[in-house]
Design brief:
Blueprint (H helix, E strand, L loop, with lengths): L12 E5 L1 H4 L10 H6 L1 H7 L3 E4 L3 E2 L11 E5 L5 H14 L3 E6 L9 H9 L11 E2 L22 E5 L5 E6 L14 H16 L4 E4 L37 H12 L6 E4 L6 H5 L9 E2 L3 H4 L4 H17 L5 E3 L8 H4 L3 H17 L3 E5 L19 H5 L44 H5 L5 H14 L17 E6 L2 E6 L5 E2 L5 E4 L7 E2 L3 E5 L1
Parallel strand pairs: 1-2, 1-13, 2-5, 5-9, 9-10, 10-11, 12-13
Antiparallel strand pairs: 3-4, 6-8, 7-8, 14-15, 15-19, 16-18, 17-19
Helix pairs in contact: 6-7, 12-15
The structure holds 1-O-alpha-D-glucopyranosyl-D-fructose.
Length: 523
């Protein structure tokens, strides 16, 4: 397939907007869709092709939108349906696509279906939309199996039946406010199809599918092995809660709807480690793209990074699928902090951005990554992630990577909102990191990202799909993509660069030497 006939997403730069934290247009301290619309020129100048926006549908916000009470309307907190329509039109005017986040695995407990299930009682059709079971042991006092919630604590909650007595339990792999749907019930897909068509008819260009390896549950719901809590939010491949093979029939059904809308893309959140199992989601009649999280999980170490890249490429190649690359999102610690924090963490994050942007495929940049934002140590009293409560205050959760964007000025809220009372506090020292300051600084991380994205889109060297690994010095990562050479110095000493013209570097190159914690592109 020639470059011109390739689908738009094959080498697209997606920019992830966490809507609570991007820009607040109405002064309530929470970001919203008109805020995004007002900042579209910033994204156009950054050079992004598409926006992935985290859930904005109607929700009590127990998990900030991943608890959906109405999948076919926009929450008033984010400006309602009209605000999304304004955003779609304004983004399309600038040639930017809009992809939404859909949550098929579960609904909110406030969804009318769940409320009906509670009211109807056991052995009713209403209960068949979710996963209700009798408890184990005398009086049904024990949960139906030993599954744990990803956010901590049991994955089951017992309900009071309409007669007022404790009765059945329902399954929730996440918060108790996020009951899992029963995808064996055909009503669930029929409704999901309505949701897909509802948004596609409104001009949405595709969907990020939440927990795309969830949905199907093994018959009999067998017990799971004990979870290693230090790996919270990460399932192993033998975990019965996820990746049941029946999930693929669901993806085929979804694809048959998407195919009615040429150009629309689906991107699955697929936390599956094994390459062969992961690739099954990318078969020609399933998802277009799948998040591969190996690069997120890699340490700043040349061997580890190479291993992550080679595995990601190999996994996508199994189904001739497009590789995807991401260094961070709203669920993981920001990379500046992951790579050590401070100036070193930032230097490494920039270097890794160049590695990511040199690779063939689609890339995902998380809002604030282009400003080099670090994770924030938040005080206990402002934490909102359900993980904090559900883990009995042992896991702080994901709020630290969700702090609102600093746009301009010298004091919080830095133009994010008109109130200082933002939903999470913005650190005063982010005054140095505002978009305004960075736009005016040729050495800033924002200027660096703009230039890197510009080169990636303009230079012909970024067209090839083949990656080779010439022998590299110890602690260096070096790969070629046709005429392009990407070098990363993950060691502690300056690295002599190979022959060639330095097209771009994440730190100044002097006398042909690349400093440590830096990357360069050569042609
Ligand atoms: O994340 C799913 C998630 O938490 C993964 O880490 C996954 O569940 C785990 O590896 C087990 O397979 C998505 C969203 O990104 C997150 O923000 C939501 O909280 C969650 O789903 C629930 O909707």
């Amino acid at each position: 397939m020639g470059r011109h006939s390739a689908p738009w997403w094959r080498d697209a730069v997606f920019y992830q907007v966490y809507p609570r934290s991007f820009a607040d247009s109405d002064g309530d301290g929470v970001g919203d869709l008109d805020g995004v619309t007002a900042r579209l020129d910033y994204l156009a100048q950054l050079g992004v092709d598409a926006i992935w926006i985290n859930p904005v549908t109607v929700s009590p916000m127990a998990d900030h939108g991943y608890d959906v009470a109405d999948p076919r309307d926009v929450d008033p907190l984010f400006g309602g349906l009209a605000a999304l329509e304004r955003l779609i039109a304004a983004a399309h005017d600038r040639n930017i696509k809009i992809t939404m986040d859909l949550v098929p695995n579960h609904t909110s407990s406030a969804h009318p279906w769940f409320q009906a299930a509670l009211a109807a009682g056991p052995s009713t059709d209403a209960r068949e939309r979710y996963i209700f079971r009798d408890g184990r042991g005398p009086g049904g006092l024990e949960p139906p199996n030993n599954w744990e919630s990803v956010f901590g604590g049991p994955a089951w909650t017992r309900v009071n039946e309409p007669d007022g007595n404790p009765g059945q339990w329902y399954l929730h792999l996440f918060d108790a406010e996020q009951p899992d749907l029963n995808w064996d019930n055909p009503e669930i897909f029929d409704d999901f199809e309505k949701t897909l068509r509802f948004w596609l008819e409104r001009g949405v260009d595709g969907f990020r599918i939440d927990v795309a390896h969830g949905m199907a549950k093994p018959p009999g719901l067998p017990d799971m092995a004990a979870v290693d809590r230090s790996r919270m939010l990460r399932n192993k491949d033998d975990d019965p809660r996820f990746n049941h093979p029946d999930v693929h029939a669901i993806h085929r059904d979804i694809r048959s709807v998407i195919d009615d809308y040429p150009g629309a893309v689906t991107i699955g959140e697929v936390w599956v480690h094994d390459n062969a199992r992961w690739a099954e989601y990318l078969r020609p009649d399933e998802l277009h793209l799948g998040f591969n999280f190996r690069l997120v999980q890699a340490q700043f170490d040349a061997t580890d990074i190479r291993d992550a890249i080679e595995n990601s490429l190999a996994a996508a190649a199994i189904e001739n699928a497009t590789p995807t690359w991401t260094l961070s999102n709203h669920d993981v610690e920001r990379e500046v902090t992951r790579y050590g924090g401070g100036a070193v963490g930032l230097a490494r994050a920039r270097a890794m951005a160049m590695v990511m942007l040199a690779l063939p495929g689609a890339v995902f940049i998380y809002n604030g990554e282009e400003l080099g934002l670090p994770n924030v140590e938040l005080p206990d009293e402002v934490l909102q992630d359900p993980t904090w409560e559900r883990s009995g205050h042992t896991e702080r959760g994901r709020d630290g990577c969700r702090v609102p964007m600093p746009w301009e000025g010298d004091t919080p809220p830095f133009g994010f909102s008109t109130t200082v009372d933002t939903w999470l506090p913005i650190p005063p020292d982010w005054a140095a990191l505002t978009a305004e300051k960075q736009l005016a600084d040729t050495g800033s991380t924002l200027t660096f990202f703009r230039r890197a994205l510009e080169l990636r889109s303009l230079r012909a060297e970024f067209n090839g799909t083949r990656i080779d690994w010439p022998t590299a010095p110890r602690d260096a990562l070096m790969f070629t993509r046709g005429q392009l050479v990407c070098v990363l110095n993950a060691g502690t000493r300056p690295l002599r660069l190979p022959e060639g013209e330095v097209l771009f570097a994440s730190a100044p190159v002097a006398d042909g030497e690349l400093p440590s914690n830096a990357a360069a592109w050569l042609v």
